Each structure stands twice: as structure tokens, then as C-alpha cells.
């Protein structure tokens, strides 16, 4: 796995990733043959998954936090990436772990969760933890991203100084169009997903429409699935210190994964 990590770090740097915390990471391992793949969200980076990665590594898992193409570099770089590029990176991570003999589960944040659902249609997984998944974005113009990407290529947003190195202030609308492609593809295929799945959402999420997380959950074909909803105090990104319910998020994820060991 170190060879994979070294290759992905070299790729990230070649593509313009300069901040060390935005690089892919590998944590833990050695005690079991269980691995967890972590997938960050749209315009984010592996940084947002690293606290959860450290928590899971401390519980005996090998943890690989990948970097989706176009992330940790520049908004312009991300604007040129497609759903197929992101999915290929996720499948490569899953297959690389499996090829080393690991039983692989995965945790995804937001768009990362959707990519894992899509990947589960092609690659078997021991379990899935989906943090803030969705079928519909909250912004009223999001459905029109296919047209708007030619008129207004970027959407501006305000970030706190501490988050500025790890997220994009300018979100490429072309990327939102790719997310729309992903949700359209998943809608008719959720019944095909049989992987044991935990869905965690929050009423305080200002990025996606909360009912669509429940809609996604209800349509999942998984015989073993669980749903947890935090209150209005929890935001969209559940893995960072900005979430006051971060410790409970980690406990929920770890408990669900541990339950898979016993089943």
C-alpha cells in the first residue's frame, strides 16, 4: 500500500497539490486485514477525512484517504474533471486495497458518499458509511448547472481562514453538473446496492436538501441499513472540528464498522 500512496502523492504534486494536508494519506494497519477507504467531498480534500482516519486507525484498521482528481489543486483544475475521473480514483483505491488481501469497508462525505454508492455497484464492499449523502442539492439553481456552467463558470462562497487552505472559495459549476449526473445515475440503481450501510445526516445541513438523504436511504436495497439524523447544530461536513457532534459521528461510524466484524 505504501507504493500506492507514494504514486498518488507524486500524482497529486504533479497536478499542483501544494499543501501537505491535501495529499492522500495512509494510517494504521498491521493488526488486522481490515481496511477502510475514506473519500472526501466536492471541493474538499483528504484533510477533512483525516481526523476520522486517525480515529479508525486507532481501532485497528488500515485507513487510506484518497484525493479525488481536481481537488487540493485549483478550481480551474476541478472544472475540467468529470464524474468518470472521480469514480476511477475510487475504484482504483478499492481494488488496490482488495488486491492486498484486505476486507474493505468505506466512508464517504457528501459527494464522496455518492461515489462510493456508485462504486459499490461494481466492486464488493464489507460496509458503507455515508455522511451527509443526498439526491438533491439545496441551491435552487443547482438543477440548471448544465447550462449555467457556460454562463457563470464559478460560484463564490466565504470560507473561514482556518478552512481556506483545504477548500475552494470558487466552486466550479461544471463540477455541480457532474454531481447532477451522478445523482441521476444513482436514483434508478439504489435498489441494486446490497452493501450493509449506515447513513448519517444533519438538520443543520445548508448544502443539501435533508429529505433527499432519507429518500436515498429508503431506496437502498441493502438488507442491513441504519439511519441517524443529528439536529440543527450539526453542519454538512460531519468529519471536521466545525461539527460539534464530531465525536458522535466517529463513534457511530466505528460502532457500525465493528458490528460488521461480528455479523
Based on CA atoms alone, the radius of gyration comes out at 17 Å
Measured between the Cα atoms of the first and last residue, the distance is 27 Å
CATH C-level class = Alpha Beta
Briefly note the structural class of the backbone.
Answer: alpha/beta
CATH architecture: 3-Layer(aba) Sandwich
State the main characteristics:
263 residues, alpha/beta, Rossmann fold, two-stranded antiparallel sheet, 9 helices, 9 strands, globular
Summarize the topology.
Elements: H1 2-14, E1 25-28, E2 34-39, H2 50-57, E3 62-65, H3 75-79, H4 83-99, E4 103-109, H5 111-120, E5 128-131, H6 145-151, E6 154-156, E7 170-172, H7 173-187, E8 197-202, H8 210-219, E9 225-230, H9 246-262
Parallel strand pairs: 2-3, 2-4, 4-5, 5-8, 8-9
Antiparallel strand pairs: 1-3, 6-7
Helix pairs in contact: 4-5, 5-7, 6-7
Amino acid at each position: 500500500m505504501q507504493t500506492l500512496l507514494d504514486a498518488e502523492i507524486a500524482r497529486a504534486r504533479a497536478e499542483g497539490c501544494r499543501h501537505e494536508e491535501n495529499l492522500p494519506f495512509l494510517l494504521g494497519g498491521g493488526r488486522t486485514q481490515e481496511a477502510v477507504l475514506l473519500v472526501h467531498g466536492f471541493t474538499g480534500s483528504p484533510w477533512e477525512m483525516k481526523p476520522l482516519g486517525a480515529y479508525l486507525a486507532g481501532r485497528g484498521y488500515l485507513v487510506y484517504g484518497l484525493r479525488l482528481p481536481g481537488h487540493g489543486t485549483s478550481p480551474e483544475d476541478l472544472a475540467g474533471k468529470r464524474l468518470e475521473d472521480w469514480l476511477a480514483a475510487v475504484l482504483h483505491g478499492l481494488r488496490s486495497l482488495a488486491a492486498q488481501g484486505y476486507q474493505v469497508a468505506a466512508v464517504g462525505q457528501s459527494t464522496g458518499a455518492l461515489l462510493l454508492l456508485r462504486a459499490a455497484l461494481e466492486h464488493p464492499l464489507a460496509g458503507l458509511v455515508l455522511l451527509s449523502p443526498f439526491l438533491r442539492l439545496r441551491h435552487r439553481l443547482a438543477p440548471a448547472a448544465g447550462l449555467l456552467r457556460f454562463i457563470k463558470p464559478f460560484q463564490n462562497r466565504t470560507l473561514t481562514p482556518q478552512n481556506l487552505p483545504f477548500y475552494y472559495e470558487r466552486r466550479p459549476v461544471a463540477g455541480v453538473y457532474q454531481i447532477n449526473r451522478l445523482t441521476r445515475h444513482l436514483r434508478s440503481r439504489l435498489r441494486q446496492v446490497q452493501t450493509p450501510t449506515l447513513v448519517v445526516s444533519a438538520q443543520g445541513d445548508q448544502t443539501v436538501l435533508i429529505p433527499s438523504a432519507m429518500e436515498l436511504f429508503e431506496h437502498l436495497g441493502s438488507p442491513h441499513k441504519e439511519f441517524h439524523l443529528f439536529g440543527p447544530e450539526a453542519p454538512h461536513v460531519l468529519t471536521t472540528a466545525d461539527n460539534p457532534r464530531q465525536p458522535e459521528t466517529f463513534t457511530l461510524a466505528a460502532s457500525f464498522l465493528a458490528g460488521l466484524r461480528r455479523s
